[in-house]
Amino acid sequence: MQQGQASFPRRALLAVSVGTCLSLMGDASLYAVLPTHAADAGVSVASVGALLSANRFIRLLLMARAVWSTTGGVGVACLCPLCSSGRSQPRSTG
């Protein structure tokens, strides 16, 4: 195997890792800072609740879609029952 081929997965992994780290830090700070500094951001307390709720529901829907696309639909009902659109557990064929 050549040197260039071996380094590409490491660079891709590093990029995904850094992106995930920054995303999680941003999400955590959103939930910690926005409710306590709503007036500084120019947002009412009710709007903060609506924004954070919308953020959480969108993440649930996107999580279900990501699981569906990566596993071919297996495990969606187990991982995210709210987003599985009424799909039941697989039946045993015994």
Could you explain how this protein is built, in words?
The protein is built from four helices and no strands. The protein is mainly α. The radius of gyration is 20 Å and the shape is flat. The model has no long low-confidence stretch (mean pLDDT 75).
For the structure shown, list the relevant keywords:
94 residues, mainly alpha, 4 helices, 70% helix, 0% strand
Summarize the model shown:
With 94 residues, the protein is mainly α. 70% of the residues lie in helices and 0% in strands. The termini are far apart.
Computed over alpha carbons, the radius of gyration is: 20 Å
Number of discrete helical segments: 4
Order of helices and strands: HHHH
Q: Bin the helical content.
A: over 70%
Classify the secondary structure makeup into a structural class: mainly alpha
Largest sheet: none
Terminal Cα separation, in Å? 48 Å
Query: Approximately how much beta-strand content do the residues carry?
Result: under 5%
Query: Quick one: how many beta strands?
Result: 0
Mean pLDDT: 75
The parts where pLDDT drops under 50 for at least 5 residues are none
Silhouette: flat
